[in-house]
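User: Could you go from structure to sequence for me? I need the amino acid at each position, not a summary. Structure tokens:
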């Protein structure tokens, strides 16, 4: 609940830039539609490859080229407007936080570390802008494709689609579990980096005092401890990430095997030819990539 509440606190910073998000969202919809159209055009061209019908092949490949070009245009403006919106949000947040700090009393600054405050105003707010960009672009685009592609697959063959989705709840649960653990480790890593920044600011700001009392070895020891904590936290996060892909990838492979086994045994060749099964597998593979 605390995480969701913190996300909702960004809404006042998003509303002034709704027009940029709206234009970026329209481009995302266009990009997704063009992406969904490309496999159909490629499949139509593949039907005439074995027949040697060069005119038909050129026709469908020409349409695919135009669609790909249009998709690239949508992708460019989607990136431009979403990046612009996320940078505007980060700028507004940074300005408001900095102005708020000047309204606080001296006791707050006596308790706080200068390096930590500087890190919050720079790196942390940049990360917030990156989250806004990823949520508004990658998450929305992947979400739309995850909705549209299964609907089209259900239209093509609903029993085969349901068979392929047997392991989807387990994959979703695993990805959610890994995501929560990654979030915890990421926060710990950010805290460690903030502590390192505060330590460096403190030591370099009073380097004369450190040298006057010959405390170099003590400060080196403090820095080594903080650096080791940061390395350990980052290593646990990367180890968890390395574990996620093989496990989810194995479940994806199992689901694909079930898909082929079910399709080969349930549907005769005349009703469900190999080309149609391969086209169906390509769409299922696209869904798996988006999910991972």
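Assistant: Here is the amino acid at each position, in order:
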């Amino acid at each position: 609940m605390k995480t969701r509440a913190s996300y909702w606190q960004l809404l006042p910073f998003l509303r002034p830039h709704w027009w940029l998000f709206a234009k970026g969202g329209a481009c995302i919809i266009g990009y997704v539609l063009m992406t969904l159209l490309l496999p159909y055009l490629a499949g139509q061209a593949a039907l005439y490859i074995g027949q040697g019908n060069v005119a038909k092949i050129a026709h469908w490949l020409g349409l695919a080229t135009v669609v790909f070009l249009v998709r690239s245009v949508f992708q460019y403006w989607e990136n431009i407007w979403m990046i612009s919106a996320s940078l505007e949000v980060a700028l507004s947040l940074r300005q408001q936080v900095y102005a708020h700090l000047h309204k606080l009393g001296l006791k707050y600054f006596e308790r706080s570390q200068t390096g930590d405050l500087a890190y919050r105003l720079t790196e942390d707010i940049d990360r917030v802008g990156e989250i806004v960009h990823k949520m508004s672009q990658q998450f929305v685009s992947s979400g739309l494709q995850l909705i549209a592609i299964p609907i089209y697959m259900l239209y093509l063959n609903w029993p085969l689609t349901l068979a392929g989705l047997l392991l989807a709840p387990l994959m979703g649960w695993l990805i959610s579990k890994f995501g929560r653990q990654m979030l915890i480790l990421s926060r710990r890593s950010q805290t460690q980096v903030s502590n390192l920044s505060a330590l460096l600011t403190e030591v370099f700001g009073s380097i004369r005092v450190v040298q006057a009392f010959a405390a170099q070895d003590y400060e080196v020891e403090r820095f080594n401890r903080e650096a080791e904590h940061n390395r350990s936290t980052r290593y646990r996060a990367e180890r968890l990430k390395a574990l996620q892909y093989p496990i989810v990838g194995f479940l994806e492979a199992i689901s694909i095997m079930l898909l082929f086994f079910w399709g080969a045994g349930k549907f005769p060749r005349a009703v469900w030819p190999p080309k149609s099964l391969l086209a169906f597998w390509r769409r299922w593979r696209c869904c798996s990539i988006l999910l991972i």
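One structural detail worth keeping in mind: The first helix runs from residue 2 to 8.
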